[in-house]
Amino acid sequence: MPRKPRIELAGKYHIINRGVEQRKVFEEPADYEQFEELMCFYAKSFGITIHNYCLMSNHYHLLIEISRENLSKFMRQLNMNYSIYFNKKNRRTGHLWQGRYKSWYVTDEAYLYTLMCYIEQNPLKANIVKTLEAYPYSSYHYFLEKEIPECLKDSWVVEQYQDDKEAIEAFLTNPVDTSQLQELKRASSLIEAPNVDKRPKEEDLRELFQNITDIKQRNKVILQAIEQGYSQHMIAKVLGISQQAVYGVVKRSRR
């Protein structure tokens, strides 16, 4: 049976790929550096934004953003060309990756913030290092350096915090509750992803909430706004409530 084509919407994606049979795909510093070089090269070629990433010995995590339907093309070039490099260097043949990469569309800001911390903290979780800055194969240490690599200059972290290294460190070292991460992932996957070229505007959202008289009606309109593609962050801002409160309304509606 042929594989179903991936549906690619503009926006942010969490990407994971693992080595076949859980084998190491990065064996020495040169391997990590080659992957990073290819990643940055093809990100520029395809107009893709890299928000953050972490390369582990047998898998990798990427948080990227696309503006057109070219995610599969980007991933094909990245994985294929790294495989060619790795197989040639090690005089091996056959598949390097266990299969097609896994991807999750990120539609919720709470999920996004938790996900960025989770990606960077992989080396800590695996007890490879005691501090994040000690791990050289993730975006974290680049964010703390004076010169940010070209392929990370448009990342959310850089745009949000500029060169405030203390704020970056405080944000990315926030403890991650993995059960909360999974819950946020499930909630995010249940929300229809908007077409970002037609993303709703804040002034339109304010009109939607103009004649609200009670909390029950407000919560009903919150769910309608979510279905129309408004972000939980924008809804919270317009209503003057916390994003967690908006997320609570969405979560209760799924029960």
UniProtKB/TrEMBL annotation:
Q: What is this protein called?
A: Transposase
Q: Which residues form the Transposase IS200-like domain?
A: 8-122
Q: Which residues form a coiled coil?
A: none
Provide a Gene Ontology MF annotation, just one. transposase activity
Among InterPro entries, the record links this protein to: RNA_pol_sigma_r3/r4-like, Transposase_17, Transposase_17_sf
Source domain of life is Bacteria
Q: Which GO terms describe its biological process?
A: DNA transposition
Matches recorded under Gene3D superfamilies: Transposase IS200-like
> What taxonomic classification does the UniProt entry list for its organism?
Bacteria, Pseudomonadati, Campylobacterota, Epsilonproteobacteria, Campylobacterales
Tell me which species this is from.
Sulfurovum indicum
